[in-house]
Design goal:
single chain, about 425 residues, alpha+beta, 14 helices, elongated
Length: about 425
């Protein structure tokens, strides 16, 4: 009905305009920028080329799985480009917080929403970036930090569906310290199993328990070959730094960043959903500290962890997990005859294939070749020294420029033996430095 053609907010993918529906209801229109799909596709092609070059020229970068990261980034961008997907996220969050009067999620007007544009309720509120307006309105900053933290932790640990970018620009406030959350383009989701891993990880971090943390980390190794003894030592050393630290001095974002860096050293790549969760927690802690200098995320984590662990150990939860385990076992046993039949048929037809990871054998082979080369050169060098010594003892014979030819050949043998010896020493020194 009425459209403000000047956007009051914009981003790289979309821009936001205020408007009114025919009913007079104030709304915001989030409109995808024209031609943005072609721009994104071109950027992704460039990134793909860069990733291919990096993997080809920097073998050590492969352990960070850049192709996998790029694939996840591409999927995330595709979801963000479809504004109807974001609208579905809004509805999901509204449902999850329907019983929370202190949290407000804008209503979506589906009759006006499409992949190119979504239409949401406009709520007049104080931007989270305007601290002076928050103070003028008499809002309690510490209460805002506490409530915002509990909202995000509920998303992660209870709903398993969370806002992945809870920075001040995506949060608004209403009288009564109520929160309005917007911009649900970037979200994360955790499976039940992953949520249990997160709870175990956070609990281990809160207790500074390196052994419990290692048990969780080993679940993420997938194909990586991990030196468990070295990993255990590194995790224990990291936790030791925080053993005597007061809870109020522990910054969860710093600790998570150190854990992530340690995992990369061991060629362990965090699953993409956990990467988003780490990002959300780090952003949340920054938001809380902006409102309350004494804010510590870890102190808010413990009650949620205790509640989640208590829920997992309730009789009905144990019965449900037990039933799931029995069903999985029965399905596995039922599939064994079929899988064996396929295996024998493939073997009979000559189609059976065995995949072996020979990377470590290849490395052993290269080292063995280098060793054999050095032994061969060493034997040749020893032979040259012995042969030259024998030749040098022979008197007489033809001469060249007044120098006996046999003497000249003996000297040449010594020179070649010297350079061979230098080569062997340098190659051994380089091999020991790898």
């Amino acid at each position: 009905e009425a459209l403000d053609t000047t956007p009051f907010a914009s981003a790289s993918i979309a821009q936001v305009h205020r408007a009114k529906l025919p009913s007079g209801a104030p709304v915001v229109l989030k409109i995808r920028r024209p031609g943005i799909e072609k721009t994104v596709a071109a950027d992704l092609r460039i990134l793909q080329h860069v990733v291919t070059l990096v993997e080809a020229n920097l073998p050590e970068a492969r352990r960070y799985q850049p192709q996998r990261i790029l694939a996840e980034f591409s999927r995330s961008l595709s979801r963000e480009l479809d504004l109807a997907v974001e609208a579905r996220h809004v509805d999901r969050f509204a449902k999850n917080f329907a019983g929370e009067p202190g949290v407000l999620v804008p209503k979506v007007y589906w009759e006006w929403t499409s992949p190119m544009m979504n239409v949401q309720e406009y709520i007049e509120a104080i931007p989270g970036t305007d601290l002076e307006a928050i103070d003028r309105a008499g809002l309690d900053r510490k209460e805002l930090a506490r409530r915002g933290t509990e909202v995000v932790l509920k998303m992660i640990l209870v709903d398993r569906f969370f806002h992945a970018d809870p920075h001040p620009g995506n949060v608004f406030y209403l009288p009564g310290n109520r929160l309005v959350i917007i911009d649900f383009g970037m979200v994360g989701r955790l499976t039940d199993a992953r949520r249990d891993e997160v709870v175990a990880m956070m609990s281990a971090i809160a207790r500074r328990d390196a052994d419990a943390l290692m048990e969780v980390v080993l679940e993420w190794t997938v194909d990586a070959h991990v030196d468990e003894n070295r990993l255990a030592y590194d995790l224990d050393e990291l936790m030791f730094e925080y053993v005597d630290a007061p809870l109020k001095d522990v910054r969860i974002s710093t600790l998570l960043r150190e854990v992530n860096a340690l995992l990369r050293e061991h060629s362990i790549v965090l699953p993409s959903d956990l990467t988003l969760m780490f990002k959300a927690l780090a952003t949340l802690e920054g938001l809380g500290r902006q409102y309350d200098p004494e804010f510590r995320l870890v102190s808010h984590l413990e009650p949620f962890l205790e509640r989640t662990l208590a829920e997992r150990n309730r009789p009905e939860s144990l019965v449900r997990r037990g039933r799931q385990g029995v069903n999985q076992f029965v399905n596995l046993m039922g599939a064994i005859p079929r899988d064996l039949s396929r295996l024998f048929k493939d073997a009979r037809r000559g189609k059976m294939r065995v995949d072996l990871d020979l990377k470590r054998l290849d490395d052993f082979g290269r080292r063995l070749d280098d060793t054999i080369d050095r032994i061969t050169i060493g034997i040749m060098t020893a032979s040259l020294v012995i042969g030259s010594s024998i030749v040098m003892t022979i008197k007489g014979g033809p001469a060249l420029f007044g120098i006996p030819l046999l003497t000249a050949l003996g000297l040449l043998g010594y020179v070649i033996a010297f350079f061979n010896s230098v080569w062997i020493i340098v190659s051994i020194w380089r091999a020991n430095r790898r």
